[in-house]
Write a structure and sequence with these properties.
TPR repeat, alpha/beta, Tetratricopeptide repeat protein, AMP-dep_synth/lig_dom, five-stranded mixed sheet, ANL_N_sf, TPR-like_helical_dom_sf
Amino acid sequence: MSDDKLERERKLKDLLVRLTDSPFYKRKLADYNLMNIGLKQISTLPITVKGELRKAGALDHLAVDRKEAVHYCESFGTSGEPASAWFTKEDLETGIRQIKGCGVRFDKEDIVLLRFPHGLTATAFLMQQTCLQVGATIIPEYSTVTPYPKVLDLMNRLNVTIIAGSPREIELLAETARLLGLNSSEHFSSLRAIIVTGEVVGKRRKEHLKQKWGVPIIDIYGTAETANIAAMCEHGMMHVLEQDVVVEALKEDGSGLVKPGERGLAAITTLSHQASPLLRYLNEDVISVEQGLCACGQTESKLVHYGRLKDRIRFGEIVLDDKDIQDAIYSLAPVPDAWKAMQQENGFHMILDSERYADWSLEGIQVQLSEMLKVTVTAEIGFGTLLNRDELARNVASKRQVYICKRDNEDPDISSFILLRDLLRRGYNEFMSCKYEKAQQLFEEAVALSPHSAEAHAWLAAVYGRKIDAAWSLTEKIELFSMLENEITTALEIDPTLPLARRMNGSKLLNTPDMLGGDPAVAINEFRYCIDQGMNDVEIWVSLAECYMKTDDPVKAIEALKAALALEPMHERAAQLLQQAKKRKHL
């Protein structure tokens, strides 16, 4: 047995002892004999799932005295307890060592601009500590309110050599450079490498980024709970950090490993982590792992990250992960500046945004994407449909990009889908009975169960709208309005075609003062869209009429109110507005 394998066996033994210092794992492993477990027997031990960690809470997972933990982070979650991770000083040193070993090879001559949000993940902190340790200069530009032109100015004036950020941030920086008349691959002559993490970066996307900037793109793969799992070498191969983690690619039913190179669910065992170690942690990612020779000389396994299991889409026997869709999109010429793929019954509808959209052939794009994805693809192309380029030059906080919109009924867990529909049905009944507290509880459960359900977010927004009407204090109204706005934004990002989300957006635009972003003229378009999609209740016609009254069009207001009264002849509000509209018409 090689020295490396002996060292990994030793670390596993140490880990199994250390796990019993965690209250969570002490209970979980109580019935297991850990004495004779080695790397070959690790598959006999239980899998850890995210739900268990969330239920256990932050402190129950801790395997060292709390005073030994010097850094804390947690995964992003929409509700409930997040999955937590603690770091000792030794854990931080491990993370720094891993980053130093990636293909960038930091040195003291580097000037590194960090474009990661400095939130509850370890990425920005570890990157900063790595720079400090090697003596590199740090520009800790992780504020989301710093405009992109300022970032580019910093890069130019300070001769930045390395940028570290999410792939989307790097793309937006390149687009901003173009808007300013700069060629990002030529203007920043000191730049020598870009580090990306946080999203799937397939081969074609990496090639696109490299072409945009003219420097190598180095990807680091990890999660908040596990920290770093794999890092890319200078030859573009993602290597598992086998000195510190064991990575298994499991079958979807958990019955065993997939064959080398096949896609499976990632199960991560953190050999080196001291504070909050993990055993066979199913992080809900789809990966493949296989041995392969690499020109860099490393012998560690090659890893490919395909995306999140919850984002996987199935059309019969065809299974598509985030990377598959991304590879197809980034094969287009030109590559879109922004894109969204919306799942349809038998394929996708793609929205593609590019300043060079005139170079595309719509028919050609649809054929190319359909052939690559093996499903029917329709598309719409244009400029400014998804990306507001004016915002790139303003202090607009960046948001996590939603690229792929799944149909709610395509959730791979059919039991979860059934539960979601039941929660929405029950919530709707409570909402229609004016029991808004109970309706809110049910819709919040629906959002927690299925964060990518636009319908759940839209109904939660509807509840907040009714509670705003009933609130007495200005403070409560302001707080509820912020929550309503967030749910509407989320619903529209997930599915901009959902009539309920468009209706809630119309109501917000109608009822918000102009100085705070209200716009009755735009609200008209939202309500008309909903009516065209089949909504035909009295309230939507009344809302449309109110928009016409606010935009000084009493004739159209009268038409809308007549439609409302045809549905409900005794509707008091519609009758009052009709009299007002008629008077205004004759003024």
